[in-house]
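Aim 2 progress update. The chain analyzed this quarter is reproduced below.
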Amino acid sequence: MPSPIQQARAAIITAPLNTPFRITTGQHNQLEKDFYQVQATNGIRGYGEAAVTSHITGKTVEQTQAGDAVRPAVSLAVM
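Predicted structure tokens:
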């Protein structure tokens, strides 16, 4: 039986690259990821991340956090 979500948090993590990532559209000196923590009412916690590839998809970390792709993953985290 699924347990309701008690708390959900999202944070943006920025990691500098030792070697810049270069493609024809530009260079990236750091990567940004969305990091998630979800806690159910039964105390179970889940963690996850979403690797944001704005240089490929055009989506920002903020758009990723607000997007529909995150909601199903959060729902599955407490089943």
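The radius of gyration is 15 Å. The chain has one domain: 5-77. These observations will guide the mutagenesis experiments scheduled for the next reporting period.
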